[in-house]
Amino acid sequence: MSSKSFKIRKGLNIRLQGEADKVYATADPSETYAIKPPDFHGLVPKMMVKVGEEVKAGSPIFHDKYNPKIIYTAPVSGEVVEIKRGEKRRILEVKILADKETQYETFKQANPTDLSREDIIDALLQSGLWPFIRQRPLAVVANPEEMPKSIFISAFDSSPLAPDNDFVLHGHGEEFQAGLDAVAKLTTGKVHLNVRAGQGSSKVFTNSKNVQVNSFAGPHPAGNVGVQIHHADPINKGEVVWYLYPQDVLAIGRFFQQGKLDLSRVIALTGSEVKHPKYYKTVVGASIKNLVAGNVEDGNLRYISGSPLTGTSIDAEGYIGFYDTQATVLPEGDEYKFVATKGWMGPGFDKFSASRTFPTWMMPKSKKWRLDTNTNGEERAFVMTGQYDKVFPFDIYPVQLIKSIMINDIEEMENLGIYEVAPEDFALCEYVCTSKINVQKVVRDGLDVIKEECM
Amino acid sequence: MKFLRKIFDNLKEKHGDKKFYPLIDAVDTFAFTPNHTTKLGSHIRDGVDLKRTMMMVIMALVPCLLFGMWNVGHQHYIATGQVGMDAPLMDEFMGKFLYGAIRVLPLVIVSYASGLAIEFVFCIKNGHSIQEGFLVSGMLIPLIMPVDVPLWMVAVSTIFAVLIGKEVFGGTGMNILNVALTSRAFLFFAYPTKMSGNAVWIPTEGMATVDGYTGETALGKLATAVGKPVGDPSTSEMIQSNFAEGGIFDLHNSILGTIPGSIGETSVIAILLGAVFLLWVGVASWRVMVSMFAGGFAMAAIFNAFAVNEFMALDPLHQLMIGGFMFGMVFMATDPVTAAQTNTGKIIYGFFCGFFGIMIRVFNPAYPEGIMLAILFMNVMAPLIDHYVIQANVKRRQKRLKAAAAAAS
């Protein structure tokens, strides 16, 4: 299929210390695994197993209360040891104590090109692979009843410290193609596989068949699927686009080739506080406990499942999220900074900023930063303007959209383009915000309202 | 610093839930960036915050402030004959500067004290933390005052501006009108007898002025030419002698700033130093500055081409170098809260600030500070400009939706 190339001009690459070396390190496999319902926004899980039950990889754990067809399965075999609940008895984690040798549920082996759309959807639903397929608008698990106008796969992740998919997928061309063949059946429109321009992306991507390979140039968030959709096939009200990520496609391909649910996943352990940032071969839902043990610097640390911009806080023995391919360890910044030395009147040689109010913007681009989790200031009303626009490569007015959400004006949200965005698209806006407004939360709230009222 | 930290920690513990907590918190966050860490969303955040941003603007104002102090002394020395009109500028440098500092600093102190007092009252009343907006307003207000304004008037106008101009709208970030300009406009309309005339610009303190010295500003002089045709003998010669090469208000002096006027507005060089700094650190919008200059120049050029009096006939560039035009362009129109917020909107907004500024100044010489009124007017218009800019974006999206619907059916 014909390919297109796009150039993204707005954005920001935050250059952090602790990028993973392109080698696989070994660590003891995780003893326990967890599926975390909060990873799936808006999901109300209905448990299908009890504590103490034995499950195999691919056995159902819970399903969506409002859409029982969508089931969530165990990534490994073993015993369900804990159902961790939070406020209002909301289920936070379902923990499985893994067997030494993984037992797999058996599914039908097939060549996806021979299957119909319905067969593929059924197979994905039964195996628990379906939740990998998400939809825009809303950025939630796709509804199998709908027909997407196109499907997007971002082959590269441009966020800070992100894993390199060219490295991760090296040598997995066949499984990846099988996955693409299955995905391609799900839409009557195109499947867009978007690679980074000019970097000699892996042949796994560039040789892919059955898809349209587009190239995107530019800084983060060029790798965000939302940006790619906006430029290649923008969403109008009433339309749906599905999207997934390369390792998810790989899992789907493996499933059809082998007839079992093998949720092997490569994780990049990154961040300035990791002594040896490297790649690890794990399984979805693994704990970071064995990866970080003895491998991190001293001090008060923040463990993140995902990227520093969009990830979720976990503890040192926490579990990597369903969609995450990266774990990051950063220093906590819970210290006071005196005004004239390290505070707002200080010279600021230690501060990385997208603005030019610190002299560091004149430093060479090769300099990498050790950023902590301090907010570097308090929350304020919107004062500065034009700041979000510089890192927001959409034909959308970000501040105006945020304000329309804040005042809960649904018509205005629709007019200003809320169907095209997800919280992650605003992560850089949130990062650069002088007023320290939690923009991603606002966007999520807005999408919740839209889901309630308009979809 | 641990010692200081301990004091704050103790104070906060003691007054944690009491009325004056916002006050303590304000002083604490002034001295220490708090230990807050990210709880939601992005785990890392940019180094910049509102305090840093505001500090950049204050730094940009320093050249204007320092030059203003010197110029206040300079004008005083000339007016009272302590130095001759043609004496080198550097004569009595320290004397001039110190005299000016003694006259200007009280204005700065009164402006900050009265404005911050209101801010604190509202923060305590509403129980929220102090926002930094007034750090800049408090410095801008004295710089756009005539030096001889009574301190109580500064206090009253500052309080009015903060109260009516800002707090009633919800505080920093919510105001429609530029706070500093609101205070100046209040002063202008509330005390017209004090604010018009010539005496207010030069502090003579009762000392006799030298013969022929009026203390008039450039705009005051030009205003006398309105209503009289170009070449009218009663004005032409006076304008020529003042504004042509070698006059008090010639282009050279207007740019250098050695002329009577509000404290911070006279020196184009000092203002441009501030402008370069603001653009260098990326705090102010170049779009507003450039388009406002273009708008002012366009209007001045039109007047120049169709001049019916000596004011209109003034060279366009010279027109922009006198009065508050440059100061307004760099420090007032660029206020992000009251300017247009969209990039396209900023260009339109800036252009009309300049365009109307010169128009009001020349057509209505009773309001020599036309720039101030034009910027205030455009502050009010800015949301409307943004509305139309955003509607264009909305229309684009709706058109795409229609096209998609048509293709589907």
Short description:
The complex is a heterodimer of chains A (455) and B (409). Chain A is an alpha/beta fold and 455 residues long.
Can you walk me through this structure?
The complex is a heterodimer of chains A (455) and B (409). The model of chain A has no long low-confidence stretch (mean pLDDT 91). In chain A, helix 8 runs antiparallel to helix 9 (410-416). Chain A has helices at 117-127, 165-168, 173-184, 203-206, 225-232, 246-258, 289-292, 398-406, 410-416, 427-432, 439-454, and strands at 5-7, 24-25, 32-35, 45-47, 54-55, 60-64, 67-73, 78-85, 91-98, 134-136, 140-141, 150-154, 191-196, 212-217, 241-244, 264-270, 279-283, 301-305, 312-314, 326-331, 337-338. With 455 residues, chain A is α/β, with parallel strands linked by helices. The N and C termini of chain B lie far apart (71 Å). Chain B is globular, with a radius of gyration of 24 Å. The mean pLDDT of chain B is 88. The longest helix of chain B has 39 residues, at 370-408. With 409 residues, chain B is an all-alpha fold. Chain B is 65% helix and 0% strand. Chain B has helices at 2-15, 21-31, 50-79, 93-126, 133-143, 151-166, 179-190, 192-195, 218-223, 233-243, 251-256, 268-280, 286-305, 310-313, 316-321, 325-332, 343-363, 370-408, and one strand spanning 32-33. Chains A and B meet through strand 21, helix 10 and helix 11 of A and helix 2, strand 1, helix 3 and helix 18 of B.
